Amino acid sequence: MGFKDVNNKVDFVALERDILEFWRQTDAFNELRRLRAETESEHGIFSFIDGPITANNPMGVHHAWGRTYKDLYQRYYAMQGKNQRWQNGFDCQGLWVEVNAE
Q1: Looking at the whole model, is its pTM more than 0.85?
Q2: 19 with 57: CB under 8 angstroms?
Q3: What is the C-alpha separation between 67 and 20, in angstroms, rounded?
Q4: CB under 8 Å to 66, separation ≥6 — which residues?
Q5: Distances (CA, A) of 18 to 21, 27, 63, 68
Q6: How many CB atoms lie within 10 A of CB 60?
Q7: Terminus of the chain with fewer CB atoms < 10 Å: N or C?
Q8: Angle at the Cα of 88 (from 27 to 29), degrees rounded to 5?
C-alpha cells in the first residue's frame, strides 16, 4: 500500500474558489445557523464583543493576530454546539476615531 502523489504546485486561488463554491452549493453557513438555532435553549447564545480592526492607525500584524483569535473562538464555540449572534459587536474602539476627528 503506497501513498498517492501530492502535487507540490497548489493553485491556492483555485482551491479557495472550489471551497467557496462547495459552501454555496451546500448553503453551509445557513445550515450551521439552522442547526445551532435548534440548540439555543439548551446551550444559550454565545456573544462575542469585537471591535474594528484598526481604530486610529494602519493595520499591523497584531491586528491580524487578534482577528484570527476572534475568528477561532467563534468557530470553536459553534463546533461546541453554541448558537451565536453571528455578528460581531463593537467595544468602543471607534471612540478614539471620533475624538481624533473632533
Answers
A1: no
A2: no
A3: 20
A4: none
A5: 5, 14, 28, 22
A6: 11
A7: N
A8: 10
